[in-house]
Amino acid sequence: MLESALGLFGIILAKRTNHTILRDISAIIKPSRMTLLLGPPSSGKTTLLLALAGMLDQSLKVKGEITYNGYNFNEFVPQKTFLTTLKRFRCGRQDLFLKACAMEGDESSIITDYILKILGLDVCKDTLVGNEMMRGISGGQKKRVTSGEMIVGPAKFLLMDEISTGLDSSTTLQIVRCMQQIAHFTHSTVFMSLLQPDPETFNLFDDVILLSEGQIVYQGPREHVLHFFQSCGFQCPERKGTADFLQEVTSKKDQEQYWADSTEPYRYVSVTEFATLFKAFNVGLQLEDDLKLAYDKSQCHKSALVFKKCTIPKMQLLKTSFDKEWLLLKRTSFVYIFKAIQLIIVAFTVSTVFLRTTLDVSYDDGPLYIGAIIFSIIINMFNGFAELSLTIARLPVFYKHRDLLFYPAWAFTLPSCLLRIPISVVESVIWTVTVYYTIGYAPETSRFFKQMLMIFLIQQMASGVFRLIGGVCRSMIVAHTGGALVLFIVFLLSGFILPLDEIPKWWNWGHWISPLSYGFKAMTINEMLSPRGRTILLCVAVLDNVDVDSESYWYWIGAACLLGFTILFNILFTFSLMYLNPLGKPQAIISEEAAKEQEPNQGDQITMSKRHSSSNTRELEKQQVSSQHSPKKTGIKRGMILPFLPLSMSFDKVNYYVDMPKEMKSQGVTEHRLQLLREVTGVFRPGVLTALMGVSGAGKTTLMDVLAGRKTGGYIEGDIRISGFPEKQETFARIQ
């Protein structure tokens, strides 16, 4: 952040250069066809998909034009027209609630259930995705959830980036076949990038775009791609997959093996030469002719593109947002139950510490009441601290929904604030009922309810300020540092740590903008101006000691200010959701050698400023381990001297169980435990490379975690041995 601020003044700390990502990209993606985007890593596939989706980072320099049915990006709403999945997992919960084409009164539809069945997600449709702290679905199922989110939506243009990563070949084939049917039957347009598709998966596509070094090498029907490379002198072997051949034929290290022109010696054909040859190929010539023809906008169906950002009535949108928030509130109900229990324990403790305090004897008893009031303010202030982590945890999903124009920021803020008001009322009642008469506050009923009102307003203000800190900081690390700094300053200037007359004049403004100062004044006045057995002079003296005005109207001023701060903080939180983006997105680092090898910019291109790596990022020197003395006798084996003793691992009839999820019990499952591994037996030997294979969700990761001793929950049965000795995690952890 500091470096970005200095950059506004022209001060650049890191060495930078312009790096071309895409160069002279021209193509046409047609409807009712499924197009495959192929290319080696770092070829620019993700950047191309981001450009087509209108989601490129603002720091990138873009030249060229992208149109949909003749319309530019500024003439329609691309977020509503097509959907994009770009190497992104759902980090929250499996919740198709907002996107399902649901019938009235039902949370799902035939379309949603059909897609769940195709993707193999019907077995976990009511299961939370999970995270680092919560057990959820498998990694492959997470990828399929992301694909399912796109399929169930109404969009007719789907951009999908390497959805096969982490999936087995059969699942990938099943998903691509589903996408093929959607493209052909619903006249949708599917543009999908895959890294290494199987021949069966490759043959399902209608068109192919081959991208390498930021340039298009081929774009056209799948049937003609091999003919193009044959015209260039390269032949795909019979038993070689076409997709693998296409990605290797443009590589400098793999190209020579495919040279098939016996009349001429082999020479390396660069990507730029391939791109030039394609323009002279019949498919390239046809593409050039098609690009010259302007699209007739009158032929565009009115429902093909979306021209309005708000396609749902505001009341219906608000109702849906309230239903979603209520669902999430029930899922996190344990947090609020724990907060209530915590509040009861603390209230009981403070009641016994300040048991039956009186102010009838002398002036010295006044600070006891002030101390009890200050402690009540602090406890109820930090009672809203849970909103910080809950808000930050939900931000990634919100940013995704916001960028896709699911709903505006106010539709997220309003339900989250209003639905927590009853919870705050219950917590305020719990605190006030427990501590008020036990401590010995003023016995008047009106003052009892006035203090309860102040506790409620302090809790609401605290929830608002912690939501604001979470929305601005967007990271737990930043929130715990910068946010804590702000809170400490607010506490310091609130008037109960240091009275107002003791605060330096240049810090007085901080006292009047501190919400806690108004809460402290209001609660102190409410208690000290009670006439019960006290002289007015004694009460006024106590108020003067803490520099609080003795006028009764300050109570209502404090209540109004706390309400105003609550509204202000929630409005600022809404603005932070509207205008701030997720943290991160660091720019790539390249070596100076790679930057020097870059070709000059030409044509339509996308350029990005990238940092040079320091000399420490150069390739590490290769280390060779060899024997110091050459063997002189025959029969002595030469090789590497291992500095450790090779070990083998054997496991016999390993079973692994977890407690049955509540969702499955609600569906009628009577068992108490869910078995994830069943009678697994095997052996791993030194010097033998073993491949653990299985379909997505088969239990591969679970087995590896069980063998490594990394499972902290569940029930493990079976015999696991290391070189014949029983596995002990205390010693095994040092060698794995």
Automatic annotation (TrEMBL):
The chain crosses the membrane at residues 334-355, 367-392, 404-431, 477-498, 553-580. It holds the Pfam family ABC2_membrane. Keywords: ATP-binding, Membrane, Nucleotide-binding, Transmembrane, Transmembrane helix, Transport. Its main location: membrane. Belongs to the ABC transporter superfamily. ABCG family. PDR (TC 3.A.1.205) subfamily. Residues 6-238 form the ABC transporter domain. One of its GO terms (cellular component) is plasma membrane. Residues 595-634 are annotated as: Disordered. It comes from the Eukaryota. It is found in: Membrane. The gene is ABCG42_0. It is a multi-pass membrane protein. It comes from Vitis vinifera. This is ABC transporter G family member 42.
